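Onboarding guide, step 5: your first structure request.
Type a short instruction followed by the sequence, for example:

Predict the 3D structure of this protein.
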Amino acid sequence: MSSVLFKSIQAYYRAWTIGDIQGVCSYVLTKNNPQPVFPPGLNNEKRQLMVQRFFNGWEVEGRRPLPIRRLFYRPNDRINLELIPPNRRFPSLELLYNDETVGALVGQTKFFQQVTRRYIGITKRMTDIFLQRKGNRQVTRPFKQGHSKMVVSTKPNAIWGMDCIYMTHFDNIPGVNLFPGTNRKALYILTVVDHFSKKVWARALARNHLDAVHVLAAFRQIVAQAQATHCKVLISDGGVEFRGPWDAYCQRNNINHRRTNPGSPTENALCERMNRIIREKLNEMMVRNNSNEWLAHLQTVVDNTNNQVAGGTNYTPNELWTPLYQAGHQVLPVVGPANDNDNMLTIRARIMQRNRQRWQTVLQKDRNRRFVLGDRVFVSIKLLSTAIRQYLKNGLGSTKNIPVKYVPQMLTISAVRPGIGFTKERYNLRNQQGVLVEKNNRPWDFYASQLVLVPRLSTPTGLDPNDFDRAMQVNNFQDNNDAANFQQGLDNDDDDDDALQPPAPAPPQPPAPVPRPVLQWHSKEWNEALKNKEFTDFVEDDREPPSRCTIVKVLYDRRERSYLVEYVKVGDRPLLKNMNQALLHEVFELARGEDWFLAGYEEFIRGRGPVD
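The system replies with structure tokens like these:
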């Protein structure tokens, strides 16, 4: 049973070293003598404190010095806690973990609760590190939820999102939703949303008009309605209706067309949410008018949406939106507390300031989710198994019924592809033989939500790391081709499931040489290679003009588990007040056009080592 004084006893000594335990044992063994033995160096005040702490309830078993001598806290028959010295802490945790009736099959909190009922001197951090190194626990951890970057706009018309709503459910109803003067029925809606003001535009599209030419024509109508306003960044899902002539149109109008990644609708979350709002309001309009006619009410719904207060602003999209895009740095008025005499320029400045603060929060959260070069990881089994994805997607079952959630084959991160804009950071992997994991003859990009970290000194799992078929059998998914795909590198299904493990080389051929891992570079080598190198730093939202910067120092951040670069603007002294910090890969991304980068680091950033 645990003691209510557990935390206090843990705090008696900072680390409970062998010397601390020996000193307590010496006192407990002689506490009833006229002259008890205290640890050397204690004054009278500290001796009285030791008597107060260790006179009652403490016992020593064995008369010889540690490790034979053992110290226990036994204030009554219910509590029996052993104080564990440093050299026995992890073996004691291993003994408890191997007891399947008590210490196994539980999470970090429950496991630590079992520790507090038996031992003193073992902290929560120690137990967390111990469990994180257990392979059986790593492959059974819950699936990660994907997190997309929040798209934050700091000025009107800086970012627009667009998407299409499918209204094909009403196609089989004769005589409704016809365009005036034609027999063409409206089956789709093109929606465009301004990320700053939340203002929305919409245009209906006819049957057989969901193609790039007609969708672009509808977008041009929206641009004309917006007083010939062209945005700076346009986000779409990259479907066929947003390709072809779109590239030439965006280039001609200086629009940066960003296409989200397949299967990642949350990267255009605001537009997806607006689609839902428009559909819900159209449904209510149909009920109000006792008809399934929606085309005649589309503009009414759009006007209604633009007249509602946008979340977190207390103003409507029509009040916040202004035509045209104002490029460059904007001189904004000083923003104070809100009052009724604020003009619209002050109101927009206050919202811009709030959005800039939100953008800094987004960047910080993105840094906390990152892996670094050399990290060892397991890959989610959902990524490789079509059967499991369909099982979960169609609502046929729950993740609770899938014991093996991560493939127990250990892979190493060999390259990091930084996220640009709203795009998440991506990773390339190599297996233990140094072979790059590929898909369709190209490096396979993995996201952080598809990987789980395997700490150093981790124990192996109970599964064969090279037997994907057995992992699928444990999950009770035997009747599929995923095992063959994983083992042989084939692509036998319609969902592009590829192999993490390429085919083994022929026996007569020597193994391919393993490239030098990037992790062998330490801070000293980084400083020798990058010190005094220059690059251009810029801010994506144009708040500040680009500036030339000089690298001062490269250091390793244990908290971020990554290398950080300290730099100053060219001409500034390398003082603390002038110093800026960025992740190493962020600096590489900024320096892609520099001569020193092209001469020796273009291949390095891909994870293949420096170019000689």
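Each response can be followed by summary notes, for example: The chain is about 30% helix and 15% strand.
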